[in-house]
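Quarterly update from the structural biology core.
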Amino acid sequence: MTTSVRDDLLAAGLFVFDRVGFEAATVAAIRARARASNGSFFHVFGSKKELAGALFLEVLRHYHAAALAALDPTPSAGQGIDQLIRAHLDWVVSSRREARYLFEISRSEWGEDVRDAQRAQNARLAEGIERWRAPLVAGGELLPMTPVMFVSQLIGPAQIFCRAFLSGRDRADPRSEADTLVACANRALRPPDRIHKQ
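Predicted structure, tokenized:
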């Protein structure tokens, strides 16, 4: 079975889940969208749930790659905060269907089968952020806090705007609030006397 068949089924699954949701999606609709036979589908995925889990991991990998790219080359504290927030907003807008799947459609009850792989991917992202963050905390450029608190202060407010955008409650491009989100994150994550020093 070629990689392209798997990729076609994942793309088709994303399209169908985005249109009708996970519960209403059918293997037949996904196969039709991918132009794949029943045998092809079940050769690659054992079920709709298995495809959904594989798709979740694939989308999560793309999202994490976008975030880590914002830290290469290694930025200063202020630049890193700015670049991470803008990378999040850019990915959500440019990959809207994937972002909606990741943040709005995916459900924990069918994600159990991929939980270990998800934890491993999340750990790689956390390690990448920590490699950038830890020296800046040690140097007094970022406030000391747990990694989870850091990410919640960094991305949490942006994610509120993004969820409203993804659900259709707010049609405004969340990137229009990037400067304010960056300024707020700097106040939450950096010592006051370091904010204006790059």
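The mean pLDDT is 92.
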